[in-house]
Write a structure and sequence with these properties.
126 residues; 0% helix; mainly beta
Length: 126
Amino acid sequence: VQLQASGGGLVQAGGSLRLSCVASGRTMRPYHMGWFRQAPGKEREFVAVATRSGSGGATYYADSVKGRFTISRDNGKNTVSLQMANVKPEDTAVYYCAVSQTVLTGLRDASNYNYWGQGTLVTVSS
């Protein structure tokens, strides 16, 4: 499985940005598809996940982005996207897409994700 993330860039605080990730190698239908981020000097942290249809297809968010970010997936195109709105300087980070087949209670733990994209940098200016 290969994941290719794109869409990062420089955006002003309060603005919007859309990240995309396309998977190749196999269908992503059995996988949860998520986003993590890592800011300079900090550990990688959970951002959002869109669960597989077999688990109900629900979405989950970190408290820090809830109400501002929206995750969506297209199983036919093997993609997952992250629509970022009202961004803040603290959203500055390298964003990674990742996929997992873990149980739902493990979705916020990066160690439970099997495959990772290369990361795309988001910089929010104040």
